[in-house]
Specification:
This protein has 2 domains: 87 residues, Roll (Ubiquitin-like (UB roll)); 144 residues, Cytidine Deaminase, domain 2, CATH 3.40.140. Helix content is 27%, strand content 30%. It contains 8 helices and 15 strands. A hairpin with a 7-residue loop joins strand 13 and strand 14. It starts with a strand and ends in a 7-residue tail after the last strand.
């Protein structure tokens, strides 16, 4: 897996009371870690943002980030992507700087803001709901998608089955894009893993942009963690009508999903889920309790 994972020696303490634990209370072993490194995003020769991410699919990450920022919304607006020269102390190329060239008519954002995004959070706020409305070129509100509740509830397991990096590290988030067929079945179109929730989503959206698939009508975005404002924002700007999360949504995430006409589900765990907005898209096989 290259720079996606890294091995490190650890001391494992065993306290389960077993004979092996009493004889060897401390074991020396190797653990596999998910790599986290900074990625600088440049527009031309100007620095635009720095994000902490798991290396891999970096061009998708940059493309998806630009969609999430409302800078671009079609592949033709992104002329090229390339890694800039950069070496570590041993003279090895780091691949930690990506330069994006935009079409001349694309309005450049303020590249002097020096935005830093950690692997755990993005930029959000109540005023951002209006900003999303203004910058969005796709509207998920009119998407007629209908998803059987059984299919929606099954997506976390389908996501988990495809998480190869999580299998060896236990330390990354995942985002999976599913196409819902006419018979109600789900097809996994793209899955990406990263130490940052928002990075995993950006990689999925960037993949879709480069494949010429935006807006992502008729799809469900399943994420492995909670549903934050930023994830709803990214889904809305990509035209995704349904976002489902394994954990809870935030209040602002629900507000934005409702304002954008999206369906937002949380606590999706195989046998149950909560639908916070857009109930009309979830087809229940039996009457909904409550």
């Amino acid at each position: 897996m290259g720079r996606v994972t890294q091995r490190r020696k650890v001391h494992k303490f065993v306290l389960d009371g077993s004979p092996q634990a009493l004889e060897f209370p401390v074991r020396h072993r190797e653990d596999v870690l998910a790599v986290e490194e900074p990625l600088e995003i440049r527009l031309g020769n100007l620095s635009f943002s720095v994000t902490m991410r798991t290396p891999g699919n970096d061009f998708e990450l940059v493309a998806g980030f630009l969609v999430s920022e409302g800078v671009i919304w079609s592949p033709e607006q992104l002329v090229s992507l390339r890694f800039c020269a950069g070496e570590d102390e041993d003279g090895v190329q780091t691949f930690n700087v990506v330069e994006a060239q935009l079409r001349p008519d694309v309005v450049r954002p303020d590249t002097g803001r020096n935005t830093f995004t950690s692997s755990s959070c993005g930029i959000c706020g109540t005023d951002s709901i209006d900003a999303v409305r203004k910058s969005s070129h796709f509207s998920p509100a009119e998407d007629p998608l209908s998803v059987p509740v059984e299919t929606l509830a099954s997506l976390p397991d389908l996501l988990r089955e495809a998480q190869s990096v999580f299998d060896v590290t236990g330390g990354v988030h995942a985002a999976g894009l599913f196409r819902i067929a006419e018979d109600g079945s789900a097809e996994l179109l793209c899955l990406r893993e990263d130490v940052g929730r928002h990075n995993a989503v950006d990689k999925v959206v960037g993949w879709a942009l480069r494949e010429g698939m935006l807006p992502l009508s008729g799809t469900v975005l399943q994420v492995s963690g909670r549903a934050s404002f930023e994830l709803v924002q990214k889904a809305a700007l990509a035209g995704i009508p349904v976002l489902a999360a394994v954990s809870a949504p935030s209040s602002l995430a629900v507000e934005l999903a409702e304002a954008s006409g999206m369906t937002l589900a949380g606590f999706s765990r195989g046998t149950s889920l909560n639908v916070y907005t857009g109930r009309r898209r979830v087809a229940a096989a039996a009457p909904v309790a409550g």
